[in-house]
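[Q] Does anyone have a clean structure-token version of this?
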Amino acid sequence: MLYLLGFIIIIIDQVTKFLAVKFLKGKSPYIVIENFFRLCYVENAGAAFGILQNKKLFFVIITFFVIITILIFLTKYSSSITSLFKIGLIMLLGGAIGNFIDRIRLGYVVDFLSFKLGKNYNFPVFNVADIFIVLGTILVMGLILLDKYEN
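[A] Here you go.
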């Protein structure tokens, strides 16, 4: 049942990226909340925050390794880890697969969520997969730090 969550994350991610391409690519950003939130199309050939641009093979290999590792870990230790820990791993897995699909299919990741923080700081543009990667990572790390990941 938990794998359904991962599948839903991937579907939402890919649908929102499809919509970003369809409605935002080649157009001016769409302002949702003035001076705070806008939708804009960005092709990110790098990693988080645009670092390591144009290293597609590197990211494909690393992401493939992460996906396989999570799947093996979930299979091997499913009975001994908490449901919340599994949810964190599935969120991370769904987000990783969502961005992996883009890298394989397009050679870059489609980003479209843009926030302005404060007067002059534009937070790096991101997507739904990135949200779940971050939330999953925070959940997993928090449970590990609190020693609340095992049954």
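[Q] Thanks! Anything notable?
[A] The longest helix spans residues 83-106.
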